[in-house]
Amino acid sequence: MALTPDDVVTKQFQHVRFKDGFDPDEVDDFLDEVVLEWRKALDENTELKAKLAAYESGEKAPAAPAAPAPVAAAPAVGGAPSNATAGIIELAQRLHDEHVAEGKSQRDQLIADAKAQAAKILADAEQKQREETARLERERNVLEGKITELHDFERSYRTQLRGYIEGQLRDLDEKGGPSVESAAAAH
Fold first, then answer.
1. Threshold 0.70, pTM exceeds
2. Which family does it belong to (predicted)?
3. Residues 5-9: contacts with CB within 8 Å, 24+ apart?
């Protein structure tokens, strides 16, 4: 397996039940792969440095294929296992820092999204409140108009009723003299 830095960054370990952390065998296997790939890179680096030294000294060296980008945090050429361990620790620290930075970025994005959503909800609620207030104001104006119409109708009706009753009383007074006496005698 050709190991790339992206493989190291994206490697996911399975959680083990009833224990904290990852499956130790899986982690050890992955670290073994990392060590093998780094050793290959170190050997290739040594070979390329030897070819470069030969070329610089004037010897003709056979054309070598383009060297891959050096692995970041790789231990020095011919490094001891402690250097490889230090490189792995440095790589792990860098991965940790990248994950923390990514987490902070995601946190900031989530906060920004939540604030935008809250602002939208608030704006929608304010718009709904304005529309409802306007509707209630229109209803109030209609009801006040009806109340005014009813007051006017009441006044007009009272005036007409008073005029009618007064007219009837006048008619009764004009015609009522003899008929009132005859009605009283009949009883």
1. no
2. Belongs to the DivIVA family.
3. 5/71, 5/72, 8/34, 8/91, 8/95, 9/95, 9/98
